[in-house]
């Protein structure tokens, strides 16, 4: 899939995020939007997954450690064909299978998550299990930069580095904001790259919204042997929606009807620009 196609897919994922959160009248749009490009690259390009066989044994695994970004994960799963896109409007509603945080009963979800810091531990366990059983699938996990203030993250990182789990790829969405404000004012985790290096990780810093950069980073991660990889992706919280970009206010609230209309108009504009680029 070329970059333009990936950009179009990512824009569809962002539309799904906004639609789901608006319909639920609750949720976390900011981080879901900043992660939309990496979600898209993982599920449409990088990972060995099949919507027709969501539990096939040799599939790559993904754990959303920052589980509150469920709208982003659900949107990419729906757009990839794991379940109907129309079901995104049932997010968080009574009787819906699309709960506020990922649950393992959802097609395509490999691990229930939501308690910050715990997802990476599950991913490390999956990677270790693959090594012990001589399986060659890879394990990916996405963490928030605020989430890595949790101590359990570093226990898992220490274990992964010591065990040389080169089938593990940890991704940190470094958008600089968490629920209480800028991360460097709440409880700074910087320098993120040096910390992971200290735990025997190969570290790659990358621009989160550049598909060439993401492609190169994930290729480098696959080629790295003898140690796990951490990709620190520098992103823009709320990416794609004008009034949500780089705003901590949109960490965990839903747009009202008027804001929803503006957000979708922003994404429609991006879609038209991408269509023009395709015709050029």
Automatic annotation (TrEMBL):
This is Transketolase 2. GO terms for molecular function: transketolase activity. Belongs to the transketolase family. Gene3D superfamilies: 3.40.50.970. Its EC number is 2.2.1.1. It holds the Pfam family Transketolase_N. Keywords: Thiamine pyrophosphate, Transferase. Residues 8-261 form the Transketolase N-terminal domain. Its cofactor is thiamine diphosphate. Signal peptide: none annotated. It is an enzyme of class 2 (transferase). The keyword Glycoprotein does not apply. It comes from the Bacteria. InterPro entries: THDP-binding, Transketolase_N.
């Amino acid at each position: 899939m070329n970059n333009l196609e990936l950009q179009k897919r990512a824009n569809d994922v962002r539309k799904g995020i906004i639609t789901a959160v608006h319909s639920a009248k609750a949720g976390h749009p900011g981080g879901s939007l900043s992660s939309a490009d990496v979600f898209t690259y993982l599920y449409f390009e990088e990972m060995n997954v099949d919507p027709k066989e969501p539990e096939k044994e040799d599939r790559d695994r993904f754990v959303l450690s920052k589980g509150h970004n469920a709208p982003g994960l659900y949107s990419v799963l729906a757009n990839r064909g794991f379940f109907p896109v129309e079901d995104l409007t049932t997010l968080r509603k009574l009787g819906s299978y699309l709960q506020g945080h990922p649950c393992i009963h959802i097609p395509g979800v490999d691990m229930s998550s939501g308690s910050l810091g715990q997802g990476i531990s599950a991913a490390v366990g999956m990677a270790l299990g693959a090594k012990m059983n001589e399986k060659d699938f890879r394990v990916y996990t996405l963490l928030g930069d605020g989430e890595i203030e949790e101590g359990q993250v570093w226990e898992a990182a220490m274990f992964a580095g010591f065990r040389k789990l080169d089938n593990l790829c940890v991704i940190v969405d470094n958008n600089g904001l968490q629920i209480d404000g800028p991360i460097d004012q709440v409880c700074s985790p910087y320098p993120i790259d040096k910390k992971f290096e200290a735990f025997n990780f190969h570290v790659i810093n990358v621009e989160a919204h550049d598909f060439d950069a993401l492609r190169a980073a994930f290729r480098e991660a696959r080629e790295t042997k003898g140690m796990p990889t951490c990709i620190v992706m520098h992103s823009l919280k709320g990416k794609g929606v004008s009034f949500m970009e780089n705003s901590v206010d949109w960490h965990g609230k839903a747009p009202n009807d008027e804001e929803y209309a503006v957000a979708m108009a922003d994404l429609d504009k991006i879609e038209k620009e991408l269509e023009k680029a395709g015709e050029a």
